[in-house]
Write a structure and sequence with these properties.
By secondary structure, the protein is an alpha+beta fold. It contains six helices and nine strands, in the order H-H-E-E-E-E-H-E-E-H-H-H-E-E-E. Strands 1, 2, 3, 4, 5, 6, 7, 8 and 9 form a nine-stranded antiparallel sheet that branches.
């Protein structure tokens, strides 16, 4: 195994200089500002532009993070998962969560904080039935986050489901599978700049449902 001395790792650095971000140029609505940046990431063919780190906190106060794919932006930020997964158990006990998007090709990141709610059953049904058939089978086959002996457990379950439902018969959405929507009350837009003097613009939701916008020190 190759080992790396901390000085070797510390020497890895990149100076950011592609763009700038000014408080006078951002949209007053952070959701619209995010949609603008996401559109630019998609058009720029950023690798996995909808990928984000989702951070949750357990009832014991233990944080955990994982990479997921964003599936919608409306009044909040939507993704789908197994409600009985580790993240699901965390969110059932503590609705506070955070997402981080990083688009290195554009030298940008967005941090989103808020509280999670489940999407409607209708929304979960619509998205579930839009997925490829094997992905729908996978949602049935996997007891997400639960220990299994080996991969053959999942493969055997897929085979059983194929025998039960065949290639065409409709698959209902599993009861324990569906969507969450992060209702943001704080967002930060980060644009890399030279010498680590990055541009940071933060939005904070106010009691009157308007957004306070301010520049943060790098």
């Amino acid at each position: 195994m190759t080992t790396h001395h901390y000085k070797e790792i510390a020497a890895i650095r990149k100076d950011y200089s592609l763009r700038s971000l000014d408080i006078n140029d951002v949209n007053p609505n952070p959701i619209l500002q995010f949609q603008h940046w996401l559109d630019e990431a998609i058009k720029s063919e950023v690798h996995e532009p909808t990928a984000m780190n989702l951070a949750t906190v357990s009832v014991e106060g233990r944080p955990s993070g994982r990479i997921l794919l964003l599936k919608g932006v409306d009044r909040g930020f939507v993704f789908f998962t197994n409600y009985n997964s580790r993240k699901g158990h965390d969110l059932n006990q503590n609705a506070a969560a955070a997402m981080t998007f990083f688009w290195p090709e554009l030298e940008r990141q967005v941090r989103v904080e808020g509280f999670m709610e489940r999407v409607s059953a209708q929304e979960s049904d619509e998205y579930f039935h839009s997925r490829p058939r094997m992905s729908r089978l996978g949602a049935w086959a996997s007891s997400q986050s639960q220990p299994i002996e080996d991969r053959s457990v999942i493969e055997r379950r897929i085979s059983e489901l194929l025998a039960q439902y065949g290639e065409e018969e409709p698959l209902p959405r599993p009861e324990g599978w569906g969507g969450y929507r992060l209702m943001a009350d704080r967002l930060e837009f980060w644009q890399g700049r030279p010498s680590r003097l990055h541009d940071r613009i933060a939005y904070t939701l106010q009691p009157a449902e308007n957004w306070k916008i301010e520049r943060l020190s790098p």
